[in-house]
Structures are given as structure tokens and as C-alpha cells.
Specification:
Strand content of chain A: under 5%
Number of helices of chain A: 12
Order of helices and strands of chain A: HHHHHHHHHHHH
Helix content of chain A: over 70%
Distance between the termini of chain B: 43 Å
Number of strands of chain B: 0
Radius of gyration of chain A: 19 Å
Distance between the termini of chain A: 28 Å
Number of domains of chain A: 1
Number of strands of chain A: 0
Oligomer: heterodimer
Largest interface: A-B, 35 and 37 residues
Radius of gyration of chain B: 21 Å
Structural class of chain A: mainly alpha
């Protein structure tokens, strides 16, 4: 356990090294936040209370999306490129020799990365957005910790998806195709472009049931106070359920792949 | 002695023709490097098709999001879906063309950091051409075809009173728009000579600018519209010329003739970007690694 804490701290420190890149990232998130906030304003001007959000809730949703974009790695990014490269070159064989659990090792590092991105690239754009727009910040203090739990669960779901993407390299050798599909699905089905509440009919129902909604839609709704009491428990259950299911599939694939590595001789 | 004189004469004329031949040389080098990457891409055709489709789909989702918005409303900022499709199609296609030609420029910061820029400096070929053509990615045709498809939809659906000027305006704004975006790519790369880690700042102006232009100017704050008209003149990519085609009011109460300025603005952008690039290249100090 101690070891994984050290790995997580390492993941945090690693991203904390890139200070100028972080500032540049904050700038980009803020620019996109502004553009989206104006488009949402036009949309909610036309249809107030669309999707059950009022104007300030919709604007808050925009800035939450920018704040969590890197934290929940909605469009991919983080460890999976590195793991895929290690699989392609065969370096992964060395990792498998280590007295650690491969999946937990990468998860710990990714949690550290997410924690840095939440602080480094989450708070600042949100703050800048709240100066320019009327945001609906939580009124009851209990919502903040509830939100953080939901974000943490979102990060685990995101990790589990990207772990599967990375493992695909064992079979495909080149994981670029899988990474691209995950990028597209993450961008669209997390609700980054448009809240999933606004997706019509069956498409909406499917989108809200898919794991990607755990990355932004669910944490955002927790932040906006739409999940309270048993609703909050259900939201957590949804996220945790997907996390467990996807992590288990990852574990199965990992053991299948490990046998493959041994057969190939690494 | 005669040899020395010959060399001196040759050098003299080389200086006179330097700027012209540098340009020709740069374009030629660009073509050669791009062709090399093209051959390498075509070695794996299935992979090329998949990445091109992915490139198409990645941009198509933006438009799907706009269509989903229009499942709830009839107008956005006073504009209908086909009108927004015109703005979207022009910006998307122009950006796609610039991305195809210059999209690799954002890797400059990484090259400065890891020292591989030094390799390019010792070759007798303009650095700009080498950086721009590096990893020339034909898959970016996916983005262009998506933009053209949306533009086609807009032109078929819209009821425009076509005049000769309006017809000419369509290819004109695509090309000038591409040139403006390309200048932004070059200027952004020049900025990375100074701030090597900051390629994301460039993304805000390129990808962010493209996203901004996909919506009508009526939905943005006046100051933002002023900024992309007079500071980073992205408004000339599609807003001003496309609003002329649509017969709509220009933002900021600008006069009619500004719709015809895109080629001029594109030229000015290129001069500015060229100067920035030179300043950056001159300030470059190798990391030594």
C-alpha cells in the first residue's frame, strides 16, 4: 500500500514539473471555456431550463467540463501511450517481473496525475470563469466532498477504460486505432460537447448508461446538487459499478496477455 | 585568382536572388519531404484509411453536437442551422487545409526541448519548410472532407441570391482563410522558440479559433469579436466574407467592403508571421543535448 502511495506521489510530481505547460493548459481551458460558455448562453437564452438546468447551472457545467477535461482524461492522455510503447517494445516483460501488481501500479500513478491536474488545471479556469459568468457554486458545504468522491470514481473509470485501450496493444501491436476510438467516445459520450441530458431519445438513454458518463456528467450533476440522498448513493453506485466491471475485464485481459508474453518469450 | 572572382560574383548574385531562391528552395524542399512522408503513409494503407476516417469522425462530432443543439431550438444567436453550417463549413475547410500544410508546426517546442531542431539547422534547406513538412499527414484530408461536406450541405440548403461576386467569394474565403490559419500556425511555432512547453497556447488560437468561428459572431461578447477582428484577424476567415454571402449584418457595424479584404489580411498575416519566425529562429539557443 505504501509503495502505491509513493507511486501516486511520483505521478503527481511528474506532472507538476511542467509548470509552463500547465499555465499554457490553463490558458487553453479558459479560452475554450469562454467560447463554450457563449454558445451555451445563446442556447439557454432560446430555451431556458433546457435539460433541467437553468442558465447559471448550464454555464457551471461548461466550466466543470474544462476543469475535469484533463483530470478525468476524457480525450485520453496520461499513461496509456507509455504502456502501449512498453508493450510494443517488449519492455513490459520487465514490468511483469517486478513484485508489484501491474494494474494497481499504473492506477496509482494515474491517480497522482489526476490529482495534479485537478489542482493545476481545474481550479484556475473555474475561478476565471466565475469572474466572467454567473456560476451556480454549491450552497451546502457537504457537496464539495461529495463532488470530490465522484471525481475520484470518474478518474478510476477513465483509468479502467484507458487500461483496456493500452492492453489492446498486446494483440494489435499498434494501439493507435483503439486509442482513437477511445478518444472519440470519450469526447462525445462524457458530455464534454453537450450535456448528456440534452441527447434526445434512445441516444440519450444509451449515452447516459455508458461508462463515459461517469467522467463528467455524473460528477457535474453531483456538483450542481442534482444527486442528493439516495440519488447520490445511486450515482456513486453507477460509477463504482462501471469501475469494478472495467477493472475486472482489464485484469482478465492482463492475465491472458501475460500468458501470451511468456509464450512469445518476451 | 579568377576562381576567387568567380566565387565572389556568384555570391553577389546569390545575395540578390537569395530571397526568391530561398522561397523556391523552401517550396521544393517542402514537396520532397511531404512526398517522402506520403510514401511512408501509403506503405500501410489500411492504417491510413482508419486514421483518415478517425480524423473525419473527430471533427464530425462537433457538428453532431450543433445538430443536437438544433433539436431543441430553431435559431442560435439569430442564425438557422444551414447558416451556421456555412460558417462551420468554411472555417472547418480552411482550418483543415492549413492543418494539412502546416499542422506539424506545433511540434516545434518539442524539437527545441529535445535538441532535434539542431539537425534541421545544419541542412541546406529552409528550416520552416522542414518543420512544416515534418510528418506530413495525409489523414488530415479527413478534416477537410468533413468541412467540405458541411459546406456542401449549407450551399444546397440555403436560399442565396447568387451574384458573380458571391460565387467568387466561396473559393476566395477558403484559400485566404487557410492562409490566415497557416500564418497563425507559423506565429504559434515562433512563440515556441521562447516558451517551449507552451504548445497549448498555440492550440487555443488554432483549434480554439476554429471552434469560435463555427458559431455566429452575434453570440459572443463585443470585445471578443473585436479581438478576433483587429488583433488576431480570424474574423476574416469566414465571418466577414460569409456574412456577405448570406446578406447578413456584419459585427461591430463594419462597412461592406471589409468582406473583400481576406486576401489582403492573409498577406499581412504572412508578413507578420514570417517576421516572428525569423525573430524566433535568431533567438534560438540550442539546449546542447
Amino acid at each position: 500500500m505504501r509503495l502505491y502511495a509513493v507511486v501516486a506521489a511520483g505521478g503527481f510530481r511528474r506532472y507538476a514539473t511542467y509548470r509552463i505547460a500547465t499555465v499554457a493548459g490553463v490558458f487553453t481551458n479558459t479560452v475554450f471555456g469562454f467560447i463554450m460558455a457563449y454558445t451555451y448562453t445563446a442556447l439557454w437564452d432560446e430555451r431556458p431550463r433546457l435539460g433541467g438546468y437553468d442558465m447559471s447551472q448550464a454555464l457551471t457545467y461548461v466550466w466543470l467540463g474544462q476543469a475535469l477535461l484533463m483530470t478525468c482524461a476524457m480525450m485520453g492522455g496520461g499513461f496509456e501511450d507509455e504502456l502501449m510503447e512498453r508493450i510494443r517494445t517488449g519492455d513490459v516483460a520487465v514490468d511483469l517481473y517486478r513484485p508489484i501488481d501491474l494494474q494497481l501500479w499504473w492506477l496509482a500513478g494515474d491517480l497522482g496525475r489526476a490529482a495534479f491536474h485537478l489542482l493545476g488545471r481545474g481550479i484556475m479556469p473555474m475561478l476565471l470563469g466565475s469572474f466572467a459568468f454567473d456560476l451556480a457554486l454549491p450552497t451546502s458545504p457537504g457537496i464539495w466532498p461529495a463532488f470530490l468522491v465522484s471525481v475520484a470514481l470518474g478518474v478510476v473509470v477513465s483509468f479502467a477504460i484507458r487500461y483496456l485501450v493500452a492492453l489492446s496493444a498486446f494483440w494489435l501491436m499498434d494501439g493507435a486505432g483503439a486509442a482513437q476510438i477511445a478518444f472519440l467516445a470519450g469526447m462525445f459520450f462524457s458530455g464534454l460537447l453537450l450535456p448528456l441530458n440534452l441527447f434526445p431519445g434512445l441516444l440519450g438513454e444509451v449515452a447516459r448508461a455508458l461508462p463515459w458518463s461517469a467522467l463528467l456528467q455524473v460528477p457535474a450533476d453531483v456538483f450542481l446538487g442534482r444527486h442528493t440522498g439516495w440519488g447520490l448513493v445511486r450515482a456513486y453506485g453507477f460509477q463504482a459499478g462501471w469501475a469494478l466491471a472495467l477493472l475486472s475485464v482489464g485484469r482478465l485481459l492482463q492475465s491472458a496477455a501475460t500468458r501470451r508474453v511468456v509464450v512469445q518469450g518476451g | 585568382m579568377a576562381e576567387v572572382v568567380d566565387v565572389a560574383v556568384a555570391e553577389g548574385s546569390a545575395v540578390v536572388f537569395a530571397s526568391r531562391s530561398r522561397l523556391v528552395e523552401g517550396v521544393r524542399a517542402y514537396g520532397l519531404i511531404a512526398a517522402m512522408w506520403l510514401r511512408s503513409t501509403m506503405a500501410y494503407r489500411a492504417s491510413f484509411v482508419m486514421t483518415a476516417v478517425g480524423n473525419f469522425a473527430a471533427t464530425a462530432f462537433d457538428f453532431v453536437a450543433i445538430m443536437l443543439m438544433f433539436s431543441h431550438v430553431d435559431v442560435l444567436g439569430g442564425y438557422t442551422l444551414p447558416e451556421i453550417a456555412l460558417l462551420y463549413g468554411v472555417s472547418g475547410t480552411a482550418f483543415g487545409l492549413a492543418d494539412l500544410a502546416m499542422g506539424s508546426m506545433d511540434r516545434l517546442g518539442r524539437r527545441v526541448r529535445d535538441g532535434t531542431l539542431d539537425t534541421l539547422l545544419v541542412r541546406p534547406v529552409p528550416v520552416l519548410a522542414q518543420v512544416a513538412a515534418d510528418r506530413f499527414a495525409l489523414r488530415r484530408l479527413g478534416r477537410i472532407s468533413q468541412g467540405l461536406l458541411v459546406l456542401g450541405y449549407a450551399l444546397v440548403t440555403l436560399d442565396i441570391g447568387w451574384t458573380a461576386l458571391k460565387v467568387v467569394m466561396v473559393p476566395l474565403m477558403l484559400l485566404s482563410g487557410a492562409a490566415i490559419f497557416a500564418a497563425v500556425f507559423v506565429a504559434g511555432a515562433a512563440f515556441q522558440f521562447f516558451a517551449q512547453d507552451a504548445s497549448e497556447v498555440q492550440n487555443s488560437f488554432t483549434y480554439g479559433g476554429n471552434t469560435l468561428l463555427q458559431y455566429p459572431p452575434t453570440i459572443f461578447a463585443k470585445d471578443l469579436v473585436r479581438g478576433v477582428t483587429f488583433v488576431v484577424p480570424l474574423a476574416f476567415v469566414n465571418w466577414l466574407p460569409a456574412l456577405y454571402v448570406l446578406g447578413r449584418d456584419y459585427p461591430l457595424g463594419l462597412p461592406d467592403w471589409v468582406a473583400f479584404l481576406p486576401p489582403v489580411v492573409a498577406g499581412l498575416c504572412w508578413v507578420a508571421a514570417g517576421l516572428a519566425w525569423r525573430a524566433g529562429l535568431r533567438a534560438y539557443r540550442s539546449t546542447g543535448s
